[in-house]
Amino acid sequence: MIHPTAIVSPEAELGSDVSIGPYCRIGCRVKIGNGCRFESHVVVEGPTTIGDDNQFYPFGTIGLPPQDLKFKGEETFLAIGDHNVFREYVNINRGTKGGGSCTRIGDHNFLMAYVHIGHDSQIGNHIIMANAATLAGHVTIEDHATVGAFSGVHQFCRVGTHGYVGGYSVVTKDVLPYSKTVSERNTQSYGPNVIGLERKGFSPEQIQNIKAAFRLLLQSKLNTAQAVETIKKTLKSAEVQTILDFIESSTRGVIK
């Protein structure tokens, strides 16, 4: 179903059961999967690939060129998975040559109104981004993470799996997996997000291991390197290993 006021490029590829509402504009080199819904006034430019069963609310701008002064019109991409919701005024930019050339959105994500995802960002699965959450270029958000309303994440930072960033936070280092991280400028981690983990089905034993690792990281008198070595010697679980791998792969440092 294509509304008479919508403009769809003859070069766009549409799957089955796609609905394109009033005043939408679908550009060339856009490939749309089955069951996608574009409510109205949505602009999509390519090269962009969109999976199945995604819903786009009014005034979203998807796949436009990156906001990067180094961008000179080279070919870059946006790839979106399946079952995502993009609320009003969501803005997602394509990648840049220097950042890998592709911005990626996974599956089952919920992006609330005014969310911005900058160039070359990598968004996993089952992620919630609240109103006006903003990702600069080259940001990675791992599976099941939440970024609160009006929060900003600096370039090249990561938010670990199941991490929770509270509203109005400014994130300039990596957010530890499973953590609650909140504040305006002097951002701090307040330990594991126990309630969130319980709601997502983590067992008491898993949560205890995570809490023990955070006690050593945040409440002991050990520096990060010393805490990591102590955790390696005393705690063994898949969740603890996720935390250790995240810390050891960080290039900007982690928020404590």
The main sheet orders its strands as 3-6-9-12-15-18-21-24-26-27
Q: Can you summarize the main beta sheet? A: 10 strands, mixed
Number of strands: 27
How many helical elements? Answer: 4
CATH topology of the largest domain: UDP N-Acetylglucosamine Acyltransferase, domain 1
Give the total of domains: 2
Gyration radius, to the nearest Å?
20 Å
Tell me the CATH superfamily of the largest domain.
Answer: Hexapeptide repeat proteins
Low-confidence stretches: none
N- to C-terminal distance: 51 Å
- What is the residue-mean pLDDT, rounded to a whole number? 95
Determine the oligomeric state from the structure. Answer: single chain
The SS-based structural class is alpha/beta
**Strand proportion:** 25-35%
CATH class of the largest domain: Mainly Beta
Global morphology? elongated
CATH-scheme architecture of the largest domain: 3 Solenoid
Share in helix: 10-25%
Keywords:
256 residues, alpha/beta, UDP N-Acetylglucosamine Acyltransferase, domain 1, Udp N-acetylglucosamine O-acyltransferase, Domain 2, ten-stranded mixed beta sheet, nine-stranded parallel beta sheet
Q: How would you describe this structure to a colleague?
A:
There is one protein chain. By secondary structure, the chain is α/β, with parallel strands linked by helices. It folds into two domains: 7-138, UDP N-Acetylglucosamine Acyltransferase, domain 1 (3 Solenoid), CATH 2.160.10; 197-248, Udp N-acetylglucosamine O-acyltransferase, C-terminal domain (Udp N-acetylglucosamine O-acyltransferase, Domain 2, Up-down Bundle), CATH 1.20.1180.10. The chain is 17% helix and 27% strand. The chain is built from four helices and 27 strands. The strands form three sheets. The chain has a ten-stranded mixed β-sheet. The longest helix has 16 residues, at 204-219. It is elongated. The chain starts with 6 loop residues before the first strand and ends in an 8-residue tail after the last helix.
